[in-house]
Amino acid sequence: MVAPDLGRAVRPTPSDAGLRVEPGSFRDPANRVYHCGDDVLRALDETAAAHWRALAASTFFPPLISAGKVCGTEELSPAAAGRSLPADWAAVLRHERIPFVSHPYEWSHAMLRDAALLHLEILRAALPAGFTTKDGSAYNLQWRGSEPVFIDVGSFAPLRDGEPWAGYRQFCQTMLYPLLLGAHLGLDFQPWLRSRIDGIEADQMVRLFRGRRRLSPGVLTHVHLHGSVQRRNADRSTADVRAQLRDAGYTGEVALAAVRGMEKLVRRLDHQPSASHWVDYQRTCGYSGEDRAAKERFVAAALTSAPRHGLVLDLGANDGHYSRLAARHADYVVAVEQDPVVVDRLYRALRAEGERRVLPLVLDLADPSPGGGWRGVERASFAARASADTVLALALVHHLAIGRNVPLAEVVSCLTGLAAPGGQLVVEFVHPEDPMAARLLANKPDGIFPHYRRDTFEALLAAHGTISGRWELPAGTRTLYQVALGA
Questions:
Q1: Do 255 and 143 sit in the same domain of this protein?
Q2: Which of 50, 305, 393, 417 is the most buried (most CB within 10 A)?
Q3: Confidence class of residue 275 from pLDDT cuts 50, 70 and 90?
């Protein structure tokens, strides 16, 4: 089974490009993920290697690969694996490289729900074939644009008699419970998942779902009953629980019925939030038709002039207009927007279009995703993951510098720092007299931003690279810049 072609050459051996262990892959001692150049490698111990070979020979798994629901995977021969990995591993797999790794707390409600449904679909296919997944974590899924993909091939294992789904608790904590928060309480789940890498505990959910809320779909069974069972079995071993379930008649058919029931529940957990200020921002932000056309021409020319666009970051993407434009010139676009409502709408639109080159993410640039988990590196920060050939920052600077009180020099440093060496920044500066900037300044003390000026902004850009393009929009209160950044 060969990984799908994502526009990157697959080299015959990974042994010459240097080796880097994936910090987030240590929790399962049976396998470990490494990066070797552009290759993503998974090393397996004897037991995991046997499970993999049984999985690869099964009837259910290859169709999942072919359909793109599981990341492309192949086993390397000992010669192809080379000497780059420690000798005590029994087998080495090579995986398709995902264009941009994201975290569940950067997804919208519809994204998390679609990822959960894919996980359940895969489990439903695995159970009749005698396999299960050891994990149920949302982190086991990633994205090709608007298409979710399961990446933890090492999570598959043979199903044993009387064994419940080992990943059920993780699934609840990182997928089901966040969806319940949005669907039943109208709460954004992102801060909850960001604060705890293992997700939301049942005990936390119980406090939120008391009284009539207990009767909300899925709550009694998967929150209150699940929490009660956890407390009752806290002192029992896994073997004891498995034996108890087997004696009670827990079979593969029962497990499959439970998965189908979970799928039915998750499909019901939709969340249609009320409109926010940012949903209509493109209509209310004050551009004339002439300004919009000039801006689009400038951005298209900047994208066309650059020699290569592997990755474009569109910061403050809103409805994704410029993300779609960038996708015509780039391998992949990450569309960043702070409002979960806006991102959810954009994701649903991209999904309907079948767009696989634009990934929308919920992220506040004034408070971006930090490194998390063990030693702060198990989940990489946004800055560590972002190395773009082009950074688009359109109608953004004034919101950070005035709206969020970030010094202009810090804003420029942040934007340029998200680009790869030799990349470019395409940025819009909204003059202080522009109606949108004036609206923000009206809510601030007089004279608080003396350095928010066009000449200061241009000097800061010049300190980071060469201004290769400049265009003032017809209204006269906004200027666009193309900046070639230093290598």
A1: yes
A2: 393
A3: low
Residues 285 and 426 in one domain: yes
Same domain membership, residue 408 and residue 299: yes
Q: Which of 348, 302, 338, 332 is nearest to 318 (CA)?
A: 338
Looking from the CA of 53 toward its CB, the CA atoms found within 13 Å total: 10
Q: Is the pTM of this model over 0.85?
A: yes
pLDDT value for 272: 76
- Confidence class for position 2, pLDDT limits 50, 70, 90: very low
Contacts of 476 (CB under 8 A, 6+ apart): none
Please name every residue paired with 424 in a beta bridge, in sequence order, or none if there are none. 390, 484
423 and 283 in a single domain? The answer is: yes
State the Cα angle at 106 between 105 and 110, rounded to 5°: 90
**Would you tell me the crossing angle of helices 408-417 and 454-464 to the nearest 10 degrees?**
30
Query: Which neighbouring-strand residues pair with 337?
Result: 362
One domain, residues 250 and 325: no
Rounded to 10 degrees, the C-alpha dihedral 16/17/23/28 comes to -40
Out of 211, 235, 268, a domain closes at: 268
Specify if 409 maps to a domain.
Answer: yes
Name the domain count of the chain: 3
- Convert 398-420 to b/e letters by CB count within 10 Å (16 or more is b): bbbbbbeebebeebbebbbebbb
The domain in which residue 467 lies consists of: 277-485
In a domain, residue 5? The reply is no
